[in-house]
Amino acid sequence: MKFLLFIILFSIIYPITAQESLYKKFKALSRPEKCWVVWHPFIAKKTNQISLEARKLANEELKDSLLDGDGNGGQVDAFRHSLWMAMLVREIRIKAAKKLGNAHEKGNYLDYKKHRTEDGTLPDAQSCQMDFLNNDAGIQIGISLKNETLDSLKTYIKNEIITGKLWIIKKDKNGNFINCTGSILKSEDYLGKWENEKCIVSSDFRKKTINNQ
After folding, report:
1. How far apart are CA 80 and CA 69, in angstroms?
2. What residue spans of the chain are helical by DSSP H?
3. pLDDT tens across 111-142, in order?
4. Residue 169 in contact with residue 198, Cβ under 8 Å?
5. For residue 11, what are the contacts with CB-CB under 8 A and spacing of at least 6?
6. 108: which residues sit within 8 A by CB, 6+ positions away?
7. What are the φ and ψ backbone dihedral angles of 92, each rounded to 5 degrees?
8. What stretch of H or E contains 191?
9. What is the residue extent of each domain of the chain?
10. Contact of 71 with 62, CB cutoff 8 Å
């Protein structure tokens, strides 16, 4: 019944051309994300626009020398998730934003089960937990900086990252994953495994490692 109502509202609110574009995006979502859209039809379009902008801004940070340029478990990954949530809670209800973040991570588990990659890699438990932590941090940042400019928000999040307030996956200077005891993980130790020995650390870990060498 709820899905039928969503279809009716969707056809009324959006013109045909917009319907076709949004429907393609809807089909590409995971089941948990689709459920979120069905329950939040009036903010789905705005949320999609915010999500696309957050990803675009995060991709720009790949070349920022302040961060490590790592979009897969690194500081840019942390930036993307925290900025995404911070931008969302400035525009939609906190509860709705948190539920969307949770739906995205639940979708990652389903992607893992179906052997579908996210950003070129297969999701795992540690990466999802890192995302949850950075999502929660982003929500609090968005609440605190609700009336600040987007540039101020980005600068604040980058400062949180370089001072170790967010979370990344532990890697050595060559980009190898290492466990919490400092041993390099072989690819067979984590590839295709939901549970593995990847280690979540504070977002200034690599800087501290370099300074201690």
Report:
1. 12
2. 2-13, 16-28, 31-39, 44-60, 75-89, 94-113, 125-144, 150-162, 187-190, 205-212
3. 999 988 877 788 999 999 999 999 999 999 99
4. yes
5. 19
6. 30, 118, 123, 127, 128, 131
7. -130, 175
8. none
9. 2-212
10. yes
Which residue, chain included where needed, has tokens 């609090």? 140
Report the length, in residues, of the chain.
213
Tell me the pLDDT tens digit for each residue of 57-91: 999 999 888 999 999 999 999 999 999 999 999 99
**For 67, what's the count of Cα atoms within 13 Å in the CB-facing half-sphere?**
31
Give the N- to C-terminal CA distance of the chain in Å, as an integer. Answer: 61
Predicted structure pTM score: 0.87
Which tokens belong to 171?
Answer: 């890697």
DSSP string, 6-50: HHHHHHHHS-HHHHHHHHHHHHHS-HHHHHHHHH-TTTHHHHHHH
